[in-house]
Amino acid sequence: MKKQKLNIVTIIAMVFTFTFAGTAQPTNVAAKSSKITVTYTLKKNNKKFAKKKVKLAKKGATVIKGLRKAWKVKGKTSPGLGFMVTGIKGKNQNTSKGIYWTYKLNGKFANKGVSSQKVHNKDRVVFNLAK
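and the corresponding structure tokens:
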């Protein structure tokens, strides 16, 4: 009799194990790893006036995508150069006075345009409007 009860308990335990083993809620690990966070800072004459952390899809993340997600951006497309930023958050460059938007990526002047420069998790992008 004890052996029969033990077999029944074992069978019930196995049924619960196999029934509920596949129903665990999926973790959001894949979704988290597909996003990156990039910090954008805006300066005018090297004085900070705005800063935002932007979450972007890891795939195809470029400087301009994050910038556009954070603020209203004006610009123009130049053949061979891609998109050129002419205004951010209502502050526009003035070509007659030699005032332009430039940017640094992780403390270094970028060697690519904003539409082709890729960004990665925890990158820091600083735009400066100055001579």
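(Above: one complete record from the training split.) The beta strands are 35-44, 47-57, 73-78, 82-88, 91-92, 100-105, 108-109, 124-130.
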